[in-house]
Amino acid sequence: MRAECPVFYAQEHDLWIVTRHEDVLAVVRDTKTFSSENAVRASVRPLPAPVLAVLAEGWPLSPTLTDSDGDVHRRLRLLVSKAFTPRRIQEMEGPVRRMTDELIDGFVAEGRADIIERFAWHLPLAAIADILGVPRKDVPLLHRWSYSWLRLMQATDPLEELMACALDVVSMQRYFMEELGRREREGGSDLMAELLTARIAGGDPLTMVEAMRVPMNLIIAGHVTVTRAIGNALTTLLAAPDQLERVRRDPALIPTMVEEVLRFESPAQGLFRTVREDTVLGGVTLPAGARIMVHWGSGNRDQSVFADPDAFDVARDSAATHLAFGKGVHACLGAPLARLQLRIAIPRLLERLPGLRLDHDAEAAVRDTIFFARGFKKLTLVWDAEAA
User: Fold this and answer.
1) How far, in Å, CA of 69 to CA of 6, rounded?
2) What is d(CA 66, CA 332) in angstroms, rounded to the nearest whole number?
3) Is the link from the previous residue into 60 a cis peptide, with omega within 30 of 0?
4) Pair 246, 315: CB distance under 8 Å
5) Which candidate, 183, 220, 205, 213, places its Cα nearest to that of 59?
6) Rounded to 5 degrees, what are φ and ψ at 8?
7) How far is Cα 343 from Cα 345, in angstroms, rounded to an integer?
8) Which of 152, 251, 346, 382 is the most exposed place for a label (fewest CB within 10 A)?
9) Pairing between strand 291-294 and 15-18?
10) Contact between 34 and 276 (Cβ < 8 Å)
């Protein structure tokens, strides 16, 4: 597609797909022409009326940091950036290392585990929960609600399942409204408490509903991609024993290994934009109102940018050029925390689970069906428990 029709129409999703690295960059840098409204919705076709009725019991889902434009986006980004300062990320290293080992302690003696269920979503969710001040006991519930939100954005499930997803999303909204209300009464020092009092450039503080959307956005965006990246990293390394051995021999390659995993198996395959006015992209005329998918995953295999792009090379330094965290004003604020978690978690799993390998069971590795989030729903690995 990059060679023959780099901007093409996918009728089944009513989406124009942008596949080349340079065109992806052109879209995300031109916020005047390409709006981020509904940036995470694969389709903007109306949800079924019964689903909308359930959602009406809560509050509007947007604008959030991910799907807002202009002054609204700038205001939210300035507020949320306080959660991801270099100092705060540095302070997270110790807790992330402890959480990593605590989670591995829970299954290391078993010799077999679904790494997604036992490890990959717990670690990033716990890290974000700590920043927000959310109790660890609520993490499993937040995970379920987050996945329901994603399924609602793709909206391809049967009606009854979509209604259940909508109910979960409303439950998540109510949960954070209650948490914010408690901080309004009692105060606090976590990010949610800060959101209630923060003012940017003399502006008004966030309303309660605006503040509620911020932790929801961070919970969802902050763990879904890292969860997938952990699974993608393990399967990719196990499928490339020569590259795995390079990292084992030279731990200095861990940072570039992480970036290569993100490039090679982009956990967020892309996000969506809406064309504000008629425009031409990659030689193709896009009408106003058209929906496009900026395909991070495809851009990350563009041979005009990456030499031998379909080769997995742990020494490749692509941190500045790959698209896994997006680019432009909507580049992922949580990227430093994600990188920290991956640099700690992947080597530690390989170190503490000797002889790590994929289970030969036919259903050991099950891909998720959210097409814009590439990763595993289930990944059963085995290792030498006695050696561990």
Assistant:
1) 26
2) 9
3) no
4) yes
5) 213
6) -135, 160
7) 6
8) 251
9) parallel
10) yes
Q: Which amino acid is at 303?
A: Q
- How many Å apart are CA 146 and CA 172, to the nearest integer? 8
Per-residue pLDDT of the chain (388 residues; tens, 9 = 90+): 999 999 999 998 889 999 999 999 999 999 999 999 989 887 777 899 999 999 999 999 988 999 999 988 988 898 888 888 899 899 999 999 999 999 999 999 999 999 999 999 999 999 999 999 999 999 999 999 999 998 998 888 999 999 999 999 999 999 999 999 999 898 888 889 888 887 555 567 788 998 899 999 999 988 889 999 999 999 999 999 999 999 999 999 999 999 999 999 999 999 999 999 999 999 999 999 999 999 999 999 999 999 999 999 999 999 999 999 999 999 999 999 999 999 999 999 999 999 999 998 878 999 998 888 899 999 999 999 999 8
Report the alpha-carbon distance of residue 113 to residue 120 in Å, rounded: 11
Is beta strand 357-358 parallel, antiparallel or unpaired with respect to 112-114? Answer: unpaired
Enumerate the H helices of 114-207 as residue ranges: 115, 122-132, 139-154, 159-186, 191-197
Q: Find how far residue 64's CA is from the centre of its chain.
A: 15
C-alpha span between 383 and 359 (Å, rounded): 9
Measured between alpha carbons, how far is 280 from 274 in angstroms, rounded to an integer? 14
- Residue 233, number of CB atoms within 10 A of its CB: 25
Closest CA to 290 of 13, 64, 3: 13
* Cα gap 118→107, rounded to integer Å: 8
Taking a C-beta distance cutoff of 8 angstroms, is the pair 230, 343 a contact? no
Q: Dihedral of the CA atoms 296, 213, 228, 110 (nearest 10)?
A: 170
Bridge partners of residue 275, in order along the sequence: 34
Going from the C-alpha of 320 to that of each of 113, 300, 385, the distances in angstroms are: 35, 12, 39
Q: Which amino acid is at 285?
A: T
